[in-house]
Amino acid sequence: MFRPELIVLEETTSTQEVAVRMALDGGVSGATVMALNQTKGRGRSGSQWISPPGKNLAFSVIVRPNIEILKAPLIGMLSAICAAETVDDFCRPFRAQLKWPNDVLVEGKKIAGIISEARFLGKIVDFIVVGVGLNVNSRAEDFPDQLRESLTSFFSLTGKIVDLRTIATTFLQRMSELLNRVENVGPDFIPLQWERRWVHKGMKLVRDGITGTATALDSDGSLLLKLSDGKILKISSGTTSCA
Q: What integer is the mean pLDDT of 23-37?
């Protein structure tokens, strides 16, 4: 059972590294490591998550879901939904959208990112550690010059400073509700719920020089592109760009 427990650290290298170690040591589902300052925060594909100390939210959550290994990526997508709903709660009237696989956007600018890593025991998901980065109290001048036009934050949208622990608690409550639903009915609702916020649905996307129309998500969260000859290209990882 997922029971949120927030552990707040003043500083650490990476909440993801701390949470993975905790999970390997038997950390329970719901244990969450939050850091006010990350010195080596991690983004997707090995990139660095850049965030000024004390202004933004960085945390990692241990999840021990009862799902098939092939559907483990859906927990990352579930987390993106939770992040988007949290943004909606605090940034009205703005509504967050999702970019495959797990970026959260507002007005076309990134406000949050999700990474996840899993450990399997045979055919069983032992645990998944979900890392969440949310731009909360950053101002435009806090972002690197080369990223300033592509990033936003709660403060940029509302002009208000928000307590980081409050945001984390709200996210975890959303996550608890959706994971409880997974336990009761399975994870198949996740792609359909994710698609409701999909910013690129129906648009032409390019992957490795191949162009196709973003039609849907597969049951495991993979991106399905319809090519000009009618064939469907299934993409399970990586990135795409607009055609």
A: 95
Say if CB 103 and CB 199 are below 8 A apart: no
- Cβ atoms of residues 19 and 61 within 8 Å: yes
- Cis peptide leading into 101, omega within 30 of 0? yes
Neighbours of 25 (CB within 10 A): 7
Condensed to tens digits (0 to 9), the pLDDT of residues 154-178 reads 999 999 999 999 999 999 999 999 9
Q: In this structure, which amino acid lies at residue 181? A: R
* Model confidence band, residue 43 (pLDDT cutoffs 50, 70, 90): low
What are the residues whose beta carbons fall under 8 Å from the beta carbon of 94, sequence distance 6 or more? 87, 88, 106, 107, 157
Find the largest Cα–Cα distance for the chain: 54
The model's pLDDT over 79-125, given as tens digits with 9 standing for 90+, comes to 999 999 999 999 999 999 999 999 999 999 999 999 999 999 988 99
Report which of 198, 215, 181 is spatially closest to residue 81, judged by C-alpha positions.
198
- Asked if residue 238 has pLDDT above 90, the reply is no
Q: Which residues, 6+ apart, have CB-to-CB distance to 84 below 8 Å? A: 96, 97, 98, 104, 112, 197
| More reliable by pLDDT, 1 or 117 | 117
Pairing, β 57-63 against β 31-35: antiparallel
Phi-psi region at 72: left, alpha or beta (left = phi > 0; alpha = psi -120 to 50): alpha
Q: What DSSP designation does 146 have?
A: G
Nearest to 62 by CA among 120, 99, 22: 22
Beta-bridged to residue 60, according to DSSP, are 33, 131
